[in-house]
Amino acid sequence: MLFSFQVILQNQISHNRMIIKKLNFYGLSVSSFTKKELTEFIHHTVVNSKSKIFYGYSLWTIFMIRKYRELLIVGNDADLIVADGKWFFWLINAYRYNIPYEISIPQLVLHLLKVSNDNNYSLSLWGATESVNAGARNNIRVKYPKIRLRECFSGFFNEDKKEEIIRSFMDDQPDILLIGIYSPLKEQLATQAKHHMIAKHLICK
Questions:
Q1: pLDDT at position 47 over 50
Q2: Domain span holding position 182
Q3: Which terminus in the chain has less CB density within 10 A, N or C?
Q4: Does a structural domain hold residue 2?
Q5: Is the pTM of this model over 0.70?
Q6: Strand partners, 153
């Protein structure tokens, strides 16, 4: 059974002067942080060239874990995990967990885009159809003109193309890689991408 124990973990993600706690909500790890800590964590990761996975658990994810157990493994092992969606956030706080900053994966992506624009970070997209991917790139160019867009790829590819894409990202080394592909493939790709250190932030969305 997935939900069996309720424990607050004292092991944490630590980096220099800050600590981002991971709470254990009945088997699901969720990060507890403020908006300021989130922004500092992004800067710290890019400056120190560390690959970090940002992930989000929602009520839908809990349902999917029954079918794909690897979602739990990858999710709990992510470097920052948000309570993705108001219902899940309210549920966690109803059990008196301390999560001071409510942010979903879409809001996290917008925050990351703003921080990237303010600091001239580079970014790649991996996912969706070619036309949707191209539209997203155009929106980023208009709204976040200081972001340095690197090579981007759609979410439709075969095994040979996947290896080619990963090699391209390894050569390009974007600061941010946004992965928008169906589960559990996006979780597998994020883990593989982190292993190869192809980006400093890997966001599954």
A1: yes
A2: 7-204
A3: N
A4: no
A5: yes
A6: 126
